[in-house]
């Protein structure tokens, strides 16, 4: 049995880099691993692989517990989590400077904070900004959203020097995960960091005449002079999964106000002495922000209820978690906080 890390995931078989000699091997999952439970290795997973005699692929026998996971609700299921990446140190959220999607940014920040990793926002395509004034304005707005602890960087593919600030965020030995809607310039950023076209950019993709075609391949790419970066293309929906802590971090202003409400169980629905309502009315909390907060809270609550229901239906309450349930499924939601 050898240890390794999943460094590429596409439609085929996980590619694992072995810890010993760094060689790459195509793997498939052991039947015992995928039977019943939907445990699958994701990019960044540390795994144990075996080489059975006469087998053309190595077998992933075990997925080691994840120190960190980026989890969303599986878009195709009612109440199932989907882990998109594991064992990283930083989440880099990319948004185009000239066209920041605030609602999506809120979600990205919530899920990023929820992982417990360091979080950075990168505003891309700065060359398309109308003026230096616009750059500063957007930066200030994004800072207000992301909170004081999150660095907000501005980059442009036309200005390779601007990308150096991103390189500094991925020091040797660390792993960063890049999230952002398709088309925001993630691949271009990775290519600049690497100094070669390792990721196909949209301009290339459009050539197939089938409209926008999204690659689903996730790959851990070595950043020269730094660590490794994972581009996560094709992540459209970002449904909440067990995100209360992430919401608390992304909406710290609201949670701080809530702590000052007269009633501890204040629902902020018109109770007397509600500090949240007061802050919204005073203009300290933007009404849209308050709406987002409530919607995201509701979304996590709903998915939690569904999950409980599903568990109850399966009569799972009384069952002991199976050995090896340390990853995937339920455990993915039981993240390990490690400061940020
Ligand atoms: P991804 O889907 O997030 O990986 O985005 P891509 O890197 O494929 O970029 C989408 C499109 O935006 C492509 O046509 C890129 O050439 C373009 N693009 C990316 N970065 C920049 C930039 O900094 N400035 C400008 N003007 N265009 C960019
Ligand atoms: Zn209140």
Instruction: State the strand order across the main sheet.
Output: 1-2-3-5-4
The fraction of residues assigned to DSSP E strands is 15-25%
Order of helices and strands: EEEHEEEEEHEHEHEHHEEHHHH
Task: Please give the largest β-sheet.
Answer: 5 strands, mixed, barrel
Mean pLDDT: 85
The global form is flat
Q: Give the CA-CA distance, first to last residue.
A: 34 Å
Description:
The chain is built from 10 helices and 13 strands. A 5-stranded mixed β-barrel has the order 1-2-3-5-4. It has a two-stranded antiparallel sheet with strand order 6-7. About 30% of the residues lie in helices and about 20% in strands. It starts with a strand and ends in a 27-residue tail after the last helix. Helix 2 crosses helix 7 (about 245-250) and helix 7 packs across helix 8. Strand 2 (about 15-20) and strand 3 (about 25-30) form a beta hairpin. The chain is an alpha/beta fold. Zinc ion (ZN) binds near residues 258, 266 and 268.
Layout of helices and strands:
Blueprint: E1 2-9, E2 15-18, E3 24-29, H1 31-34, E4 46-50, E5 58-63, E6 69-73, E7 81-86, E8 90-96, H2 102-115, E9 118-124, H3 132-146, E10 151-154, H4 164-167, E11 175-179, H5 186-194, H6 202-205, E12 218-222, E13 228-231, H7 244-250, H8 252-259, H9 275-281, H10 287-313
Parallel strand pairs: 3-5, 8-9, 8-11, 9-10, 11-13
Antiparallel strand pairs: 1-2, 1-4, 1-12, 2-3, 4-5, 6-7, 12-13
Helix pairs in contact: 2-7, 7-8
The structure holds guanosine-5'-diphosphate (GDP) and zinc ion.
């Amino acid at each position: 049995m050898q240890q390794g890390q999943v460094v590429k995931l596409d439609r085929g078989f996980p590619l694992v880099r072995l810890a010993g000699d760094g060689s790459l091997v195509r793997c498939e999952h052991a039947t015992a691993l995928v039977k019943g439970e939907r445990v699958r290795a994701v990019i960044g997973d540390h795994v144990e692989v075996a080489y059975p005699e006469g087998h053309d692929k190595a077998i992933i026998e075990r997925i080691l517990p994840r120190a960190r996971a980026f989890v969303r609700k599986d878009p195709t299921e009612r109440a199932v989590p989907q882990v998109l990446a594991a064992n990283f140190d930083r989440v880099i959220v990319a948004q185009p400077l000239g066209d920041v999607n605030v609602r999506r940014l809120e979600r990205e920040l919530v899920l990023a904070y929820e992982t417990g990793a360091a979080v950075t926002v990168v505003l891309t395509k700065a060359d398309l900004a109308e003026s230096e004034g616009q750059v500063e304005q957007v930066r200030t707005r994004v800072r207000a959203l992301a909170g004081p602890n999150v660095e907000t960087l501005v980059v442009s593919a036309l200005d390779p020097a601007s990308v150096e600030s991103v390189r500094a965020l991925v020091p040797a030995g660390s792993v960063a995960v890049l999230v952002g809607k398709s088309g925001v310039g993630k691949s271009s950023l990775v290519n600049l960091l690497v100094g070669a076209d390792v990721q196909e950019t949209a301009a290339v993709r459009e050539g197939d005449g089938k409209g926008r075609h999204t690659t689903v391949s996730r790959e851990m790419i070595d950043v020269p002079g730094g660590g490794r970066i994972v581009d996560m293309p094709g992540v459209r929906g970002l449904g909440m999964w067990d995100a209360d802590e992430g919401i608390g971090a992304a909406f710290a202003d609201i949670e701080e106000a809530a702590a000052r409400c007269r009633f501890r169980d204040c629902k902020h629905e018109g109770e007397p002495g509600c500090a949240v309502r007061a802050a919204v009315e005073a203009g300290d909390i933007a009404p849209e922000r308050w709406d987002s907060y409530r919607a995201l809270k509701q979304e996590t609550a709903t998915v939690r209820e569904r999950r409980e229901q599903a568990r109850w239906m399966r009569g799972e309450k009384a069952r002991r978690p199976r050995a090896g349930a340390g990853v995937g499924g339920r455990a993915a939601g039981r993240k390990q906080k490690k400061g940020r």
